Amino acid sequence: MSNGLLLDTHALIWIVHDDPIARTAREAVIAAGGSGTLFISAATAWEIGFIASKPSLLRIIGQDARAWFARAVDATGAEIVDLTAALLLDLSVLPEPLHRDPADRMIIATARARDLTIVTRDRAILDYADAGHVRALAC
């Protein structure tokens, strides 16, 4: 595998809400959380805030975005990876074809910079991994 796992935003939501994910992904996330190699991009905080700002999506987290995110970080034992200027500049040199979602681009750049495997069900990220541009574990 790699030096750790990076949770895609939706993977984090599913894990926190105890929604079903692939057994191998769940086992890998539990092991990474226990060994200090589980990470969440600061881009996910931005995405959670976006979700909370939309009444139609607020039901997904069901509470204040800050409180939900803090609870999610605590529940998973993950470490937050900040978005540095260098990492954000890396977005401009990611290989094509690239995901259109800006948060997913930040997550991809974070995984590449930190040598992490993204835990996701996002087909575009999984295709990007299949092309050899990043590592991903389907959940």
Give an account of the 3D structure.
Helices cover 57% and strands 13% of the residues. It is α/β, with parallel strands linked by helices. It has one domain: 5'-nuclease (Rossmann fold, 3-Layer(aba) Sandwich), CATH 3.40.50.1010. It has a 5-stranded parallel β-sheet with strand order 3-2-1-4-5. Helix 8 links the parallel strand 4 and strand 5.
Helix percent reads 55-70%
Would you count the extended β strands for me?
5
N- and C-termini, Cα separation: 15 Å
CATH class: Alpha Beta
CATH homolog superfamily: 5'-nuclease
The class by helix and strand makeup works out as alpha/beta
Give me the oligomer status: single chain
CATH architecture: 3-Layer(aba) Sandwich
Strand count, sense and barrel status of the largest sheet are: 5 strands, parallel
Rg over CA atoms, rounded to whole Å, is: 14 Å
Total tally of structural domains: 1
How confident is the prediction overall: mean pLDDT? 90
Q: What is the general shape?
A: globular
Secondary structure tally, helices:
8
* Parts with pLDDT < 50 across at least 5 consecutive residues: none
Beta strand %: 5-15%
Order of helices and strands: EHHEHHHEHHEHE
CATH topology: Rossmann fold
User: What is the strand arrangement across the widest sheet?
Assistant: 3-2-1-4-5
